[in-house]
Amino acid sequence: MDHGESRRPEKRRRRRRVALCVAAVLLLLIIVAVVLGVTLSKETNQFQSVFFSRCEKFKGHDCQKIWEAFQQAYVNQDPCDIPMEAYDPLITAAPFKPTCNRMMFWSKTKDVVHEFTEKRDCFVTLEDTLLGSVLDGLTWCGKEGSSETFTTDCPGWTDCKNNTVRSFWNRVSAAYADIACGDVTAMLNGSIAVPFSPTSIFGSIEVKGLNATRVKSLNVVLVTDEKNVTNCTNASLKDLQKELAEGIKYNCKEVPDTQIQECGSNPQKPCGSCW
């Protein structure tokens, strides 16, 4: 018997097993690709759904146009290489409108200030505007070679300077400060040792963006509580005064958190008497 012939069936079986293994691997790769594609598409759709549902609460705006301008800033881009200017088309699509004497800035007082503005129509924060409201609390980014919007595995706030989310908030904060007019209010935290930080968005962008030709004064509301550790004589607040453009008056008042809550819950009380 020819020994070569005796091994032919075994070779055919081996080739069949190899072919089956290759087919199985290809099938697995196809399944993974499909699942990944569906997952990414679902991620984009969920984010887009939130974007549109929030945007549509603001009447008279083209949310599709705003969405397209928004995506233009980061889709198919390195999430750590998104400069502030990338959001310029978005600002153009949904420009801020000045609300003189009612504009409120804040630092380390987000919960307090928004609880107040939700109850009373006295002041308007950045997060009360269309762009601020639509993207408040959300995380997003793009990736090179992809047309999707990702909400996971995005760089954190401090992971890189020009990350998608940080550049957005820097840009819209600058735009909001640029339209500030009249008497401007800032709510700062009196329960921390340094209520004004020059590296915060308020200190590094918003304060520097206040224009003396439009802004008459900056009125600081220093929110205090039973654990209060500072007051209006704090050294960091002296630094704040120095940062203001010449011609903008500065005022500071210590206001208990309980007083702000009480005023927020009393719609009969005039806004001007809240502090």
UniProtKB/TrEMBL annotation:
Keywords: Disulfide bond, Hydrolase, NAD, Transferase. GO terms for cellular component: plasma membrane. Coiled coil: none annotated. GO terms for molecular function: NAD+ nucleosidase activity, cyclic ADP-ribose generating; phosphorus-oxygen lyase activity; transferase activity. Signal peptide: none annotated. It holds the Pfam family Rib_hydrolayse. GO terms for biological process: positive regulation of B cell proliferation. Its EC number is 3.2.2.6. Belongs to the ADP-ribosyl cyclase family. This is ADP-ribosyl cyclase/cyclic ADP-ribose hydrolase. It comes from Amphiprion percula.
